[in-house]
Design a protein that fits this description.
Layout: H1 5-21, H2 35-41, H3 43-50, H4 55-105, H5 110-131
């Protein structure tokens, strides 16, 4: 029996069982079948229907665990660790290196600052002179 024919063959049993449950108490005789015996007889069918053909377990096992957790989410984690974290760490290390270089330039002596400003002004004037 294929998986496609299982719901088709169970459907009429489900309808029959539901119609049997709609009997009024006055129409049931004392020689009727007990609820416990019906429950025991249809327990596998009841379990299958109450578990919704085990689709939740199938979905969680295949889609969630296999595809999402081991596939998409693991790939996102690798991308985050390799690309994003390394880029952030590189920017941070670059800022540390730049600040160490700038710290050496900041001596607190005004003569050194004056020389640096003069060199900068001369460089700007030369740039305007040669490129205009």
């Amino acid at each position: 029996m294929s998986l496609v024919t299982v719901p088709g063959s169970i459907g009429p049993l489900n309808v029959t069982a539901r119609r049997g449950c709609r009997l009024k108490p006055s129409s049931v005789s004392s020689t009727s079948i007990s609820a416990q015996s019906v429950g025991k007889a249809f327990k596998p069918i009841y379990t299958m229907l109450s578990r919704k053909y085990w689709m939740d377990e199938l979905y969680e096992g295949i889609i969630v665990r296999s595809a999402l957790l081991n596939g998409l989410f693991r790939g996102s984690q690798e991308l985050d660790q390799v690309v994003v974290d390394r880029a952030a760490n590189g920017i941070g290390n670059g800022a540390i290196t730049l600040s160490k270089g700038v710290r050496r330039l900041q001596t607190g002596q005004l003569q050194g600052y004056g020389v640096a400003i003069s060199v900068g002004v001369v460089a700007i004037l030369l740039a305007f002179y040669f490129w205009h």
